[in-house]
């Protein structure tokens, strides 16, 4: 999902909702510990806070297929995360993402959030709501 600053300013500071789906199969090609990934569903709310500062609240849902750390069997690991991303044309702090080329593109941001939330070691018995 990609917006130009001009498109975002049309909302005049009012929150707006969006839904999209991303396919990250190319991103996992060179990652050994992720065997597969479902389509990633994103529900979000965006808002122009002031000037060129924007806030996006994202609800990201995906299923990773990974190897069990004990048995090496493939297992599905559901991910359901909530993140807030702040964008601005200037870097004010470490939590702000700089807007480049007058465009906000959530594709790489969502991938980064998913990858950072993935546990280093996954065991089937430790997965919440595991139906075994």
Q: How would you sum up the major sheet?
A: 6 strands, mixed
Report the total helices. 2
**Which class do the helix and strand fractions yield?**
mainly beta
> β content, as a range?
35-45%
- Head-to-tail CA distance between termini: 37 Å
Helical content band: 10-25%
Runs with pLDDT <50, length 5+? none
Using the CA coordinates, give the radius of gyration.
Answer: 17 Å
The tally of beta strands, per DSSP, is 8
Q: Topology as H/E string?
A: EHEEEEEEEH
Which overall shape is indicated by the principal axes computed on the Cα atoms? elongated
User: pLDDT average, as an integer?
Assistant: 88
Could you walk me through the main structural features you see in this protein, from its secondary elements to its overall organization?
- Helix content is about 10%, strand content about 45%.
- By secondary structure, the protein is mostly beta strands.
- Strands 2, 3, 4, 5, 6 and 7 form a six-stranded mixed beta sheet that branches. A two-stranded antiparallel ribbon has the order 1-8.
- Strand 4 (about 40-50) and strand 5 form a beta hairpin.
Question: What structural keywords apply?
Answer:
single chain; 132 residues; mainly beta; 6-stranded mixed sheet; two-stranded antiparallel sheet; elongated
Overview in brief:
By secondary structure, this protein is mainly β.
List the helices and strands and how they pair.
Elements: E1 2-4, H1 5-9, E2 16-22, E3 36-37, E4 40-50, E5 53-67, E6 74-88, E7 96-98, E8 103-105, H2 107-117
Parallel strand pairs: 6-7
Antiparallel strand pairs: 1-8, 2-4, 3-5, 4-5, 5-6
């Amino acid at each position: 999902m990609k917006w130009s600053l001009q498109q975002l300013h049309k909302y005049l500071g009012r929150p707006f909702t969006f839904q999209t789906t991303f396919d990250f199969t190319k991103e996992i090609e060179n990652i050994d510990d992720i065997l597969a990934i479902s389509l990633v569903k994103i529900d979000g709310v965006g808002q122009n806070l002031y000037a060129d500062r924007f806030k996006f609240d994202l609800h990201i849902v995906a299923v990773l297929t990974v190897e069990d750390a004990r048995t090496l069997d493939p297992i599905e690991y559901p991910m359901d995360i909530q993140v807030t991303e702040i964008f601005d044309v200037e870097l004010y702090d470490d939590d702000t993402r700089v807007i480049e080329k007058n465009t906000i593109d959530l594709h790489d941001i969502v991938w980064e959030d998913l990858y950072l939330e993935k546990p280093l070691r996954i065991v089937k018995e430790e997965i919440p709501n595991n139906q075994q």
